[in-house]
Each structure stands twice: as structure tokens, then as C-alpha cells.
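Hmm, how's this folded?
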Amino acid sequence: MDAYLSLGVPELWIYAQGELKISTLNSGEYQQVSTSPTFPGFPLLDWVTAVLTQTVTQGRSPALRAFRQQIRTRKPTL
């Protein structure tokens, strides 16, 4: 994370052990948040975890198509 910090990357998404974590840069350090400021109102933690799980059971292409469709038809909740 130090490399991202030195570059001033404002938002990090890290997927590890079956879970997506979003962190934002605040006062010179990364803090974990529950929603992405880049995509406010979208439940990305749930969506990304679901699509990555679906890639294992259904395959990558079908899972990504379903994910794109979900994003296109869903309006963000603010």
C-alpha cells in the first residue's frame, strides 16, 4: 500500500480471501470504508463478491454479462 500512498491514489479496492475491501485516502493514510465514493449508492462490496463467486460456478463470461446487466438496469440509491 505504500506505493499507492506515495502516488496519492485516492481509492483502493483489494479482493482477498473471498472479500472485497475498499479503502480511501484520508489525512495521509488509507481507511476502510463500506461504500465507494467513486460509485456512491451502488452496493459494490456485494456485487463484486457475487460476480467473482459466479465466475467459479458459471464461468467468467456469463458472470461478467450478468454483472454488466445488473449495473445497467440498477439505479444508484443515494
